[in-house]
Design brief:
The complex is a heterodimer of chains A (329) and B (320).
Chain A (H helix, E strand, L loop, with lengths): L9 H17 L6 E4 L2 E4 H24 L7 H17 L4 H25 L4 H19 L5 E2 L3 H8 L1 E2 L2 E2 H18 L3 H10 L1 H6 L4 H27 L1 E2 L8 H11 L11 H20 L8 H15 L1 H15 L1
Antiparallel strand pairs in A: 1-2, 3-6, 4-5
Chain B lengths: L2 H8 L1 H20 L6 H9 L2 H15 L7 H18 L4 H25 L4 H19 L4 E2 L3 H8 L1 E4 L2 E4 H19 L1 H11 L1 H6 L4 H27 L1 E2 L7 H11 L11 H21 L5 H24 L1
Antiparallel strand pairs in B: 1-4, 2-3
Helix pairs in contact in B: 1-2, 2-14, 3-9, 3-14, 4-9, 4-10, 4-12, 4-13, 4-14, 5-6, 5-7, 5-12, 6-7, 6-12, 9-10, 10-12, 13-14, 13-15, 14-15
The chains are: A mainly alpha (329), B mainly alpha (320).
Chain lengths: 329, 320
């Protein structure tokens, strides 16, 4: 087991590097970054800004999965938050109130999931399925089934603006990642989450407020999805209750799993999630560049996720361990 | 205790679902003129025939404590796969159907094998299966392909007339699938093994039940049902479309849960799923009859029902 424990992010990092290398070989301009009008442009910059929303949702998902759960409702929450933004901005409300309301909607949705899972003991897949089904209906109800155009320069800046020449949204997401990492790893909070995910009963007997920790993980995930909804709406300058956040739960779960967080709970790697999200986005961009129609893009993603989860499974681990030992002997 | 009462107590959830269906249908019949008719009653089955077929397969998977998120994508794949084979490669429809059913069952068996042999979470593997099937469907064609074959016209135009009641072919197929599901789930060794595995996999193993083959077989069976649903959907719409059935897996799971089947596995009844289909259809028909309610109310109401039933299940289980 020793060599595997070295660094949890080594595998996703190698995967990302391999993918970037592949792209760079086939398309030398892939890595080219130009500085134009005080802004950075280039494929890697695009990957960062397009991938920022998945990264954000995956950040929240990491904590939920670390508690041994999963949140399928994030895509619907993204749609709800976008719809809330559109309605409030159209009604002439301030940007601050709009952002607060959108993230607040995510908080409420996440807490509802958390209460169902942690207090009422409903299985996570089932509990969050409810909001996944109903949430998109709620989003469509808010915007009355229309695609609402948003024209607010300050709002649009959130997704498409630049700060010091760097796109704003990945910067914002990176800051959130760093804050979350330090809050969880420099305090005992991260350990608490892992303890609850590993063995809830044991954690409770050790004196942890397991129910509250679990609920908070879902609340945090909801808030992340809410903010991602804001960014998604700002990116396309519209609230699209039908398509916003579509398949986002899948990309987020993929990013978390690829990043080395165990789906069974009890262990999380925040940096791994960031790398996993970038890997997924790079894969998507690669396929666009190779001329694969966007609709076919899910196939390689499916193969990737099966491969990664096979590598993580105990049985394959034992096989590989056996092979290595035999080779060494 | 007389046998009828004993049955009712054992299947309390199914009885509750039945009462809810009657109440819903009666309310809708009172509110809307012309709702209380055999035509509407039959449309509850025929309008959601392919969803119902998928729900029967899903019920069996959930009996065994699993879940399958790939059924909607398999429907889309089957739809475009059969349509393309028939229209562009001039394969006979029967052969195309057999190939599609084989592909569906094969994908299901593959997912079941991954889930069982490597102990991977079912939702993750079937999520990957969903991506795979959807992507494969779009690979065949991104546009819909119309099917103009006499056999298609013959089957989709067929209606069984029983007195004043006219039953279209897709409702007949759904009824046949429900009957088959009923026999498989409640009158075969395989069905009992399913419920045993779902109830407690470890005990089932100690009892000497073939867990692995049961689990793999149920995913294969569900893939078969999803492919059949795709064929029926193609018959019904007269064209193959790779984007058919998006999000359908959620409706299918909702129907199973509303039907009183325990999502943790081990307990449930196919009759409950039939009632779930009828409840789903009643809500849909009522929204259509009303005319003032928009389509998204459907999602909200289904979500609400899902919540109520899951909470009921929790409290029912806690008390035990």
């Amino acid at each position: 087991m020793k060599p595997r424990a070295k660094s949890p992010v080594i595998w996703p990092l190698m995967g990302l590097a391999a993918l970037v290398l592949l792209n760079a070989v086939f398309n030398p301009s892939f890595l080219k970054i130009t500085f134009l009008d005080g802004h950075l442009y280039g494929v890697p910059v695009d990957i960062l800004s397009q991938g920022s929303r998945t990264m954000l949702v995956a950040l929240g998902m990491t904590l939920v999965i670390a508690t041994g759960g999963v949140d399928l409702s994030v895509g619907s929450v993204v749609a709800i938050a976008g719809a809330v933004c559109a309605m409030l901005l159209q009604g002439g409300h301030s940007l601050a109130l709009t952002l607060a309301a959108a993230i607040g909607a995510g908080l409420v949705a996440g807490t509802a999931n958390g209460v169902l899972v942690a207090r009422l003991g409903v299985q996570p897949i089932v509990a969050t399925l409810i909001l996944m089904v109903a949430g998109r209906g709620v989003a469509q109800l808010i915007v009355d089934g229309q695609v609402v155009i948003i024209s607010n320069p300050a709002f649009e800046y959130l997704a498409n603006g630049f700060l010091f020449g760097i796109p704003f949204s990945p910067l914002l997401v990176a800051v959130l990642f760093v804050i979350t990492h330090f809050v969880l790893r420099r305090t005992a909070l991260g350990l608490f989450i892992e303890a609850v995910g590993d063995n809830e009963t044991a954690a409770r007997f050790a004196g942890l407020a397991a129910t509250r920790i679990k609920t908070s993980a879902y609340t945090f995930c909801g808030a992340c999805a809410g903010l991602a909804g804001v960014l998604a709406a700002a990116n396309i300058r519209a609230a699209d209750a039908y398509r916003a956040g579509e398949n986002m739960e899948l990309d987020a779960i993929f990013a978390v799993v690829v990043g080395g967080t165990a789906l069974t709970g009890g262990r999380f790697v925040i940096l791994g999630t960031a790398i996993g999200a970038l890997l997924i986005q790079t894969l998507t961009t690669t396929m666009y560049n190779l001329g694969v129609p966007p609709a076919v893009a899910p196939v390689p993603k499916a193969l990737l996720i099966i491969g990664v989860s096979l590598l993580q499974s105990e049985k394959v681990g034992r096989w590989l361990g056996g092979l290595m030992r035999r080779n060494a002997a | 205790m007389n046998p009828v009462k004993k049955m009712a107590v054992r299947n309390l959830a199914v009885v509750v679902t039945g009462l809810i269906f009657v109440a819903l249908f009666a309310t809708a019949a009172k509110l809307y003129d012309g709702f209380f008719s055999s035509r509407v009653a039959i449309s509850l089955l025929s309008d959601n025939a392919f969803l119902g077929i998928a729900a029967v397969g899903m019920t069996l998977v959930i009996f065994a404590g699993g879940i399958d998120l790939s059924v909607g994508a398999v429907i889309g794949f089957t739809s475009i796969f059969t349509a393309t084979l028939i229209e562009q490669h001039h394969v006979s429809p029967v052969l195309a159907w057999l190939l599609a059913l084989g592909a569906g069952a094969g994908l299901g068996a593959g997912m079941g094998a991954l889930i069982h042999v490597f102990r991977l979470p079912p939702f993750l593997i079937t999520l990957a299966g969903m991506f795979f099937a959807r992507g494969a469907g779009f690979w065949i064609s991104t546009d819909s392909v119309g099917v103009n074959h006499e056999l298609y016209a013959k089957i989709s135009g067929y209606e069984l007339t029983l007195g004043s009641v006219i039953i279209p072919s897709n409702a007949l197929i759904l009824i046949a699938v429900i009957l088959a599901g009923y026999v498989i789930a409640h009158h075969t060794r395989f069905g009992r093994a399913l419920l045993a595995v779902g109830g407690n996999e470890h005990s089932a193993l100690l009892m000497g039940l073939p867990i692995g083959s049961t689990k793999i077989a149920v995913y294969a069976l569900n893939g078969f049902c999803a492919a059949l649903a795709g064929i029926v959907a193609t018959l019904y719409t007269g064209s193959g479309n790779p984007s058919m059935g998006i999000g359908l897996e959620l409706d299918a799971i909702a129907i199973v849960v509303i039907g009183g089947t325990l999502l943790t596995g081990g307990r449930g009844h196919i009759i409950g799923t039939l009632l779930g289909i009828l409840i789903f259809g009643t809500i849909q028909a009522a929204i259509l009859f009303d005319g003032r309610l928009s389509s998204w109310w459907m999602r909200i109401v289904v979500g609400g029902l899902l919540l109520v039933f899951i909470l009921l299940q929790r409290f029912f289980l806690r008390r035990k």
